[in-house]
Amino acid sequence: MTTTRTRHASGPRERLLEAAQQLTYSQGVGVGVDALLKAADVARRSLYEHFGGKDGLIAEVLRRSAEADEAAYVRTMAAAGEDPRARLLAVFDGIGEVIAREDFRGCRYLAADLALTDPEHPGHAVTRAYRARVTGLLEHELAALGHPRPAAAADQLLLLIDGALAAGATRPATDPAPAARRLAELVLAE
């Protein structure tokens, strides 16, 4: 990740999104506006023209990230084949790979929810919608598996996912993804 000023072929809106995508993940959503503007090499006016301010930019970055991350869940499950159990457990294997990345800083959505103290911040609606879609993906697989309580089990799996990502950021030496996978196997066995 680079935070130095560079010239890009993309316009100010895209540069703001790219800079905010990187900086809010590496430094958190509390990163200053000046740092965002400098990294994007744009004037303050561009932030307000395109996003109405920092809150709008943060919400759009979360929305953009959520689309990419949801697609990653779908790809991970699809790569595991047709068996719903294998597809669900592949999610935890994928989380292990994400946690092992050198630039891993934890769950963007959990970090945003904790840092955005205003309950009306538009970012909260984005993180809630993202979690609901991921839960829906999990529930769909659980129903295909014939689980007796797919909605409740999907909530449990999401809790394991959130916990593994949080532990991966705060206690990386504990290797939380395999532990979460073992717990997920218990949820699937109900």
UniProtKB/TrEMBL annotation:
<feature type="DNA-binding region" description="H-T-H motif">
    <location>
        <begin position="32"/>
        <end position="51"/>
    </location>
</feature>
<feature type="domain" description="HTH tetR-type">
    <location>
        <begin position="10"/>
        <end position="69"/>
    </location>
</feature>
<keyword id="KW-0238">DNA-binding</keyword>
<keyword id="KW-0804">Transcription</keyword>
<dbReference type="InterPro" id="IPR009057">
    <property type="entry name" value="Homeodomain-like_sf"/>
</dbReference>
<protein>
    <submittedName>
        <fullName>TetR/AcrR family transcriptional regulator</fullName>
    </submittedName>
</protein>
<keyword id="KW-0805">Transcription regulation</keyword>
<dbReference type="InterPro" id="IPR001647">
    <property type="entry name" value="HTH_TetR"/>
</dbReference>
<dbReference type="Pfam" id="PF00440">
    <property type="entry name" value="TetR_N"/>
</dbReference>
<dbReference type="InterPro" id="IPR036271">
    <property type="entry name" value="Tet_transcr_reg_TetR-rel_C_sf"/>
</dbReference>
